[in-house]
Design a protein that fits this description.
The chain contains four helices and two strands, in the order E-E-H-H-H-H. By secondary structure, it is mainly alpha-helical. It folds into two domains: about 55 residues, no CATH class; about 45 residues, Arc Repressor Mutant, subunit A. It has a two-stranded antiparallel ribbon with strand order 1-2. The protein is elongated and about 60 Å long. The relative contact order is 0.07. The model has no long low-confidence stretch (mean pLDDT about 85).
C-alpha cells in the first residue's frame, strides 16, 4: 500500500492532519506512516471478506451471473479457428470489436476445453 512508496520518491501528504511523509523523514515519522498503513490494511480486509461472502450468496441465489460473453458461441468458434489458421490477434480483436486480451481469453478457454474435454 502506502508504506513502500516514499522510498520511491513519492511524497504522501495528509492535508487535514497536516502530515507530510517524504522518505527522508525521521524514524518516528516512518513508524507513524507504517502504523497508518497497517490500520488501512486492517480496515480493508473485512470489507473484501464481506464482499466475497455477498457474491457467494448472490451466486447461490442465481443473482450474480457475471458479465455476459462478448461473443456468441459461433463467433467464438470462428475466432478460434481463424487464430489457429494464423490470423493476427490484433486484427481479429479489431474485427470482432473486442480487446486483444479478450481474444487470448477465448483462446485459453478453447485450449482448456480441448485438453479437458
Amino acid at each position: 500500500m502506502w508504506c513502500g512508496v516514499t522510498g520511491k520518491g513519492v511524497r504522501v501528504e495528509f492535508v487535514k492532519e497536516t502530515l507530510v511523509f517524504t522518505g527522508e523523514d525521521s524514524p518516528m515519522a516512518t513508524l507513524l506512516l507504517s502504523v497508518m498503513c497497517a490500520f488501512a490494511e486492517f480496515e480493508r480486509a473485512p470489507i473484501l471478506e464481506r464482499q466475497r461472502e455477498g457474491i457467494a450468496v448472490a451466486k447461490q441465489h442465481g443473482v450474480y451471473t457475471g458479465r455476459k460473453p462478448a461473443l456468441t458461441p459461433e463467433q467464438a468458434r470462428d475466432l478460434c479457428e481463424r487464430a489457429a489458421a494464423g490470423e493476427r490477434k490484433s486484427d481479429l480483436a479489431r474485427e470482432f470489436g473486442i480487446s486483444r486480451e479478450t481474444v487470448y481469453s477465448y483462446l485459453r478457454t478453447t485450449a482448456l476445453a480441448g485438453v479437458t474435454g
